[in-house]
Specification:
Blueprint: H1 2-19, H2 40-51, H3 71-80, H4 83-88, H5 106-117
Helix pairs in contact: 2-5
């Protein structure tokens, strides 16, 4: 009898736990809209810092023509200096960035492109 009571208790508890962990729609998930917006501060800055700053520092080195240390620098590089084109070139193509390095993963390039398409939000 005691075993049956314990078994029923576990089954009841399991049912409660499983049924309480569901969503009826994606609207029930908090913050889902925030995941779609790519901004300079929350995404692009870290991409630039991790892949470009070694040459595009406050004082550019290794032949880099401009600094990419600020939002405005990066915005102007996208608008006027072909940054998206340069990071999108095939590995080993002339002018591909990062210069002398490995092409950025496509998902990273897509994030920068999304940022540009969404209006270069800071």
């Amino acid at each position: 009898m005691k075993k049956n009571t314990i078994l029923i208790s576990f089954l009841f508890l399991g049912t409660v736990l499983v049924s309480s962990c569901s969503n009826d729609s994606s609207a029930d998930l908090s913050g889902i809209d925030e995941l779609d917006e790519v901004t300079y501060t929350n995404t692009v800055k870290s991409i630039i810092d991790n892949n470009c700053i070694m040459c595009h520092a406050a004082t550019p080195v290794n032949g880099a023509p401009m600094s990419l240390t600020t939002y405005e620098n990066v915005k102007q590089a996208v608008l006027n200096r072909g940054l998206l084109n340069r990071i999108s070139r095939e590995q080993g193509s002339p002018g591909m960035m990062p210069n002398g390095g490995t092409r950025l993963p496509q998902v990273v390039i897509d994030q920068v492109s999304t940022w540009a398409n969404q209006g270069l939000i800071e």
